[in-house]
Amino acid sequence: MPYLEFHQITKRFPGVLALDGVSVAIERGSCHALIGENGAGKSTLGKILVGVYTADSGELRLNGCVIHPATPLVARGLGIAMVHQELAFCPNMTVAENLCLGDLPRNALGWVDRTKLRARAQEMLAAIHADIDPAVLIGSLSTGQEQLVQIAAAVGTGAQVIVMDEPTSSLSAGETRELFRLVRDLKKRGITMIYVSHRMEELFALCDGITVLRDGRHVSTGRVADTTPAKVVAQMIGRELLVQKPRHIDQAPGEVRLQVSNLSHPRKFSEINFQVCSGEIVGLAGLVGAGRSEVAQAILGLDPSATGQVLVRGKLLPPGSINAALAAGVGLVPEDRKRQGLVLGLNCRENTALAALPLLTRLGWVNRSEEQAMVSKFSTRLRVKAPTLETGVGALSGGNQQKIALAKWLARDCSVLMVDEPTRGIDVGAKAEIYQLLDELACEGRAILMISSELPELLGLCTRILVMREGKLVGEVPRADFSEARLMALMSGVAAE
Ligand SMILES: Nc1ncnc2c1ncn2[C@@H]1O[C@H](COP(=O)(O)OP(=O)(O)OP(=O)(O)O)[C@@H](O)[C@H]1O
Ligand SMILES: [Mg+2]
Q1: Does 460 have pLDDT greater than 80?
Q2: How confident is residue 299, by pLDDT bands cut at 50, 70 and 90?
Q3: Which has the closest alpha carbon to 213: 340, 43, 343, 355?
Q4: Position 243 in a domain
Q5: Model confidence over 357-379: pLDDT tens digits?
Q6: Are residues 389 and 279 in the same domain?
Q7: If exposure means fewest CB atoms within 10 Å of the residue's CB, which of 86, 99, 340, 401 is most exposed?
């Protein structure tokens, strides 16, 4: 008998049928993958199980009994928890306080018993072999550590089912390995997991069962061992995925568009020198924390402490002036798009058009039909799933918000475009579309700097790849010498060159 069952679950949001009679059965102690395009309904299914949303119809069964997790607290009581990607704790409280929030140990006088609090937190962390000091503030932890605390909280309160929604999307390689070890360990203890991810390799390495959703409908459920990544992709997007060889690499690079000389920062990076020519996609590789995003931000003039020169088309940009950089045609799609890239109160059309407004405006008037045409062109290409372009971006799925943020910058006619982790959280079909868009932009003569932690995407798309380690540029690899091993060696500084 399956341990956990979703039976004919339907959930409707204004204008969207997010889930349409979805049924899935999951074995006890297994890790079950949930995959599908952005907006397919994965997070919604998870949130119904943990009581964030209530299904319009259908049934949930745990161990054969129908359950009604009406709120997250009720779900917790039933032994069901979710590890969220967004901050789920109070950042200005300690790890111990957060872990024991629901049930603070008190002494005879009713005061919080600090010693007991600490001991209990220590126990919860030790249970999942997490090496974190319970006395530090949540706000000072890395994303990976915070996730471990969430898992400790789930396991410590007796969770038997844990939903993990894109848990690795902002983890370093080391943190990802730690998480995998933990997931395997939890499985051995009989804990059942639902694992949502767009990273196919992870699902195939970690999961036992797999369910594919498409447009809110159930497509298939089976054993991972019985399928292949190509089959899963075809089921997800309803067609075969065509991956084209980039075309820009066949053309000779043009004039130097971006020239960075001696760019330094007292703490973040030093003596950065490189250039990007028209028609090139230059990759910037490095481990998390190598200083890649910081360099891109400094180029855009966002960092007043940076020193050195940035020249665009041979003209020196005044230091620390974002307006001058934008006027010179520099664009940056930031890494943290929810915080830096989108105006959550505006709708899809307004967000997409925001960065391009100067192009659409004449004598102070926005040309609405041009705006409409441009916005719909990019949202179609990136396969944005939204009821209409007038929908507020806050109601979109995570990946679709990312797409809008990206579309916004692609729509702006940049001469130098920097993209920071452009495909994070984005489904495979749309990823291929983004690669093609970047290739087209390069073919049109734009200079592109692409920061990415996914080596296969850098290797597939770039003209050459620069590597940063601990704030320094440590190497440059031309396309003819591309190999994952070579890049890893430079990034980590471990193997001999
Ligand atoms: N609170 C909400 N209000 C309105 N619509 C919503 C809400 N939450 C989700 N939706 C819609 O329901 C659909 C499914 O969203 P869901 O977040 O489950 O997708 P997902 O599969 O997790 O996608 P992603 O891979 O992008 O995270 C989407 O069309 C989304 O816009
Ligand atoms: Mg989601």
Answers
A1: yes
A2: very high
A3: 43
A4: no
A5: 665 555 566 566 777 777 788 77
A6: yes
A7: 86
Over the stretch 414-431, which tens digit does the pLDDT of each residue have? 899 999 998 888 888 888
The CATH number of the domain holding residue 379 is 3.40.50.300
Please tell me whether residue 113 adopts helix, strand or coil conformation: coil
Q: Exposure of 204 by Cβ count < 10 A (0-12 exposed, 13-18 middle, 19+ buried)? A: middle
Domain span at residue 21 reads: 4-237
Give the Å distance between the CA of 147 and the centre of ligand 1: 22
Pocket test for ligand 1, best of 16, 203, 217 (most atoms within 8 A of CB): 16
Q: Residue 497: is its pLDDT beyond 60? A: no
Residue 324 one-letter amino acid: A
What's the confidence (pLDDT) of residue 316?
A: 96
Q: What is the position in ligand 1's atom list of the atom closest to the CA of 42? A: 21
- Judge whether 497 lies within some domain: no
Q: Are 198 and 399 in contact (CB under 8 A)?
A: yes
Q: Looking at the CA of 425, name the nearest ligand.
A: 1
My answer on whether 147 and 194 are in the same domain is: yes
Same domain, 153 and 220: yes
What's the rounded mean pLDDT across residues 58-64?
Answer: 96
Same domain as 306, residue 216:
no
Residue 93 has pLDDT above 50, yes or no: yes
**Do residue 264 and residue 166 come from a single domain?**
no
393 alpha carbon – ligand 1 mean position (Å): 11
237, 269, 302 — which closes off a domain?
A: 237
Tally of domains within the chain? 2
Q: Give distance in angstroms: CA of 385 to centre of ligand 2.
A: 12
The CB density around residue 285, as the number of other CB atoms within 10 Å, is 26
Q: Are residues 253 and 206 in the same domain?
A: no
For 441, the token pair is 């932009």
192 and 160 in a common domain: yes
What is the pTM (predicted TM-score) of this model? 0.80
Return the ligand 1 atom nearest residue 402 CA.
Answer: 26
Q: Residues, the chain, total?
A: 497
**Are residues 209 and 255 located together in one domain of the fold?**
no
Ligand 1 atom 16: the closest Cα is on which residue?
41
